[in-house]
Amino acid sequence: MTNEIVGDVVIGIGVAIVVLGLVGLVRFKEFDLKLLAGAKIDTVGLIVIVLGAVVRSGVSWLSAKALLILAFVLIVNPVVTSTLAAGARRRRRGE
């Protein structure tokens, strides 16, 4: 019972982080700023939501799978963000 309440609160905080990040995506005009906001949504929002799901479900295979997915995203997200930023930089230079 307590795990479910704590997990729900943490998931709610993660959803709030994602919503605030989406406001940044809509508000910012430049690609670099939108990329920054999107990367923060992916990283911080996903970490908090997955940790909330792990707390809520307890020790189980679901928790292990969620943590593996989180690890994969944490490895891939900086690579994708860096590649997008480099492509935008090349496009601005006219290469």
From TrEMBL:
<dbReference type="InterPro" id="IPR005133">
    <property type="entry name" value="PhaG_MnhG_YufB"/>
</dbReference>
<dbReference type="Pfam" id="PF03334">
    <property type="entry name" value="PhaG_MnhG_YufB"/>
</dbReference>
<protein>
    <submittedName>
        <fullName>Multicomponent Na+:H+ antiporter subunit G</fullName>
    </submittedName>
</protein>
<feature type="transmembrane region" description="Helical">
    <location>
        <begin position="35"/>
        <end position="55"/>
    </location>
</feature>
<dbReference type="GO" id="GO:0015385">
    <property type="term" value="F:sodium:proton antiporter activity"/>
</dbReference>
<keyword id="KW-0472">Membrane</keyword>
<keyword id="KW-1133">Transmembrane helix</keyword>
<feature type="transmembrane region" description="Helical">
    <location>
        <begin position="67"/>
        <end position="88"/>
    </location>
</feature>
<comment type="similarity">
    <text>Belongs to the CPA3 antiporters (TC 2.A.63) subunit G family.</text>
</comment>
<feature type="transmembrane region" description="Helical">
    <location>
        <begin position="6"/>
        <end position="28"/>
    </location>
</feature>
<keyword id="KW-0812">Transmembrane</keyword>
